[in-house]
Task: inverse folding
């Protein structure tokens, strides 16, 4: 039976491995700042008859792996790209949500693109149908063709963008699986989207949906948002996970920062691996991610870093047989990763199996050079140290 002391060790090793100290041979080497950077893509849209620009942020390790990732699409992309990408990076780095691809759509005319119907008091409105067709037929198609994406997509919109998010749910619910609507301007055109929700929301969808809605201290927004909330709760029952939060100490300008962070936590509320599950071993961890796969509708593999954490828990307790077994399984599942070989090499070295340690350190060094891994110098040092000891 695992003692309380060993459970505390499990907790410590789990978080060390998860938050950056992937191999105990180079915990210090992993203490570095990673600056967010993005790619720019330009799409010549036939639907909109104009060029559209998007910023794209890829997860850390994207180039070295083969896994597929969920995507979050940001409206008002220039405004929200940096803080939303940071939220995704921070939360995924702690195992609270999955790593994701962030796609931020730059504006040309947001009044035109986000408005579901024309408003005589606002010129050039009513273009939401065309913009949604652009997202459906061109942008998401481009992202799927050029990047490794899983079958899970989120749409985030603020203010008029939140109006569009509700429009997307009602008009093309298959396009997105989850929505973050931040202070949505649902009073537009005499509460048009509120009325649409009361009439056109479905009681069942192709798969589970998630809708997270927020508002700040904005009294003019309260009544239509309450009516929209009632429509969803009344018509959708279990078809959609819905939450409506009021940030009464914040305003229209500050709600997005909080809403993206909390919205992602809400959508992926069951994602994080419980410590007790980690303590039960790899089979229990695999069962957790199998359940997650079923909930979100795309395959989720037990992450490399969490399998590594389990291996280091065994290693910390001098259970070399189980440590080697777990690290070997990680090599089997993630053969492109230099780190899994380095960890296996460390287990063999501590078990005085120096020939096996040398083989795995050498493979880590080889892959590190090929992949441009920042820890290649450490892999080399490990390999050379054991080579001299033989």
Result:
């Amino acid at each position: 039976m695992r003692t309380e002391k060993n459970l505390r060790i499990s907790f410590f090793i789990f978080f060390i491995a998860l938050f950056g100290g992937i191999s105990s041979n180079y915990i210090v080497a992993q203490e570095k700042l990673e600056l967010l950077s993005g790619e720019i893509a330009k799409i010549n849209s036939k639907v909109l008859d104009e060029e559209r620009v998007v910023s794209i942020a890829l997860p850390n390790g994207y180039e070295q792996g083969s896994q597929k990732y969920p995507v979050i699409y940001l409206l008002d992309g220039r405004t929200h790209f940096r803080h939303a990408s940071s939220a995704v990076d921070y939360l995924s780095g702690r195992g609270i949500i999955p790593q994701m691809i962030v796609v931020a759509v730059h504006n040309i005319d947001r009044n035109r693109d986000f408005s579901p119907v024309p408003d005589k008091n606002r010129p050039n409105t009513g273009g939401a149908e065309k913009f949604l067709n652009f997202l459906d037929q061109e942008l998401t198609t481009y992202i799927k063709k050029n990047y490794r994406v899983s079958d899970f997509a989120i749409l985030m919109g603020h203010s008029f963008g939140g109006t569009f998010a509700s429009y997307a749910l009602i008009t093309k619910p298959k396009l997105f699986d989850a929505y973050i609507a931040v202070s949505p301007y649902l009073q537009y055109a005499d509460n048009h989207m509120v009325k649409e929700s009361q009439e056109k929301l479905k009681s069942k969808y192709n798969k589970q949906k998630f809708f997270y809605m927020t508002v700040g201290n904005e009294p003019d927004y309260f009544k239509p948002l309450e009516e929209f909330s009632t429509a969803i709760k009344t018509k959708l029952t279990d078809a959609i996970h819905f939450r409506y939060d009021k940030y009464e100490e914040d305003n229209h300008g500050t709600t997005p920062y909080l809403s993206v962070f909390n919205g992602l936590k809400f959508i992926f509320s069951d994602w994080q691996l419980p410590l007790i599950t980690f303590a039960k071993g790899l089979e229990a961890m695999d069962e957790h991610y199998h359940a997650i796969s079923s909930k979100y509708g795309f395959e989720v593999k037990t992450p490399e870093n969490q399998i590594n954490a389990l291996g280091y828990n065994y290693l910390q307790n001098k259970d070399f047989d189980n440590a080697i077994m777990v690290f070997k399984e990680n090599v089997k599942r993630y053969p492109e990763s230099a780190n899994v070989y380095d960890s296996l090499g460390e287990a063999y070295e501590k078990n005085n199996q120096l020939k096996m340690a040398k083989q795995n350190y050498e493979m880590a060094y080889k892959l590190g050079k090929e992949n441009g891994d920042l820890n290649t110098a450490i892999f080399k040092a490990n390999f050379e140290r054991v080579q001299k000891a033989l």
Remarks:
- DSSP finds 15 helices and eight strands in the chain.
- The chain has two domains: 4-32+273-389, 39-267.
- The domain at 39-267 is CATH 3.40.50.1820 (Rossmann fold).
